[in-house]
Amino acid sequence: MRAVWTLRCLLVVGLCSAGLADAADGQPRLTLLEGPAVLHLAERAVTAREGLRLAPGTLVDTTAQTTLLRIEWPDGTLLDLGPASRAMLQPPASVGGGAAFYLLQGWAKFSRSGTPHGWSSPQLQGSPAKGVLVLAVAPGQTRAFAETGAQPLLERPGGRARPVAAGELLSLNAGAQAELSRRVPADWLTQLPRAFRDTLPSRLAAVTAVLATRGGEPPADAAPAWRYEQLQPWLSAEPALRHDFPKRFAPRLAEPEFKAAVAAHLRQHPEWAPAIEPPKRPPNGEAL
Q: Could you read off the pLDDT of 157-167 as tens digits, one per residue?
């Protein structure tokens, strides 16, 4: 009986230690995955799997076959990504002022009940606020639906305020005026990912408990390196996002095909020029 009690105590201590570690660093975890997805941790592409801890700058890419991918922060914040979505977690501070994520493409459902977090996208950004927001981003188009709670939104660039009350939908289209709908359009409901229709409870505690019983972090299994064409949407994103990419993905320049593709598209990401064509040095060793 005493052995059983000791085992239970050790398990509780392990769970508490894991939870405290997550709370201390504030980094989110991937807690739910339905379908294939790829993560870019630093310069490495890895296969997404439940339990992985995701550092700032992690790129998350879901596929058309991904039903749902959930990321959870220790403070109770939830980020659900839908099919064919691309997001960066905790992008540079110059993009959205400390945003929890940047949605480049696809669908996101962002739920905040504890510490409010902001977010960003090419055309729109959200200030920290509680509630649930559903976001859809496509080239030249952004739609934001406030499922619960008032959402203080700002257009990018320019910073024009676009507040959205609970139940309202804001639509932005390049070259057109913003539209605010107080009734949800039928096409929005048709396009909304099925997994976004229900509110799923947090899985962070359950996932952390499983990791504790297995003795630590799950392995990050390498995925096939993305070709230039697959990584290009990020490499040609807005300058503040891609500023550090030449350093981050420098090892990929050892691949002739990747280097040639970068060189052929330098106008889309000129910050790669020094890596592609290092400045020439005269005989005395000083740069020209």
A: 888 999 999 99
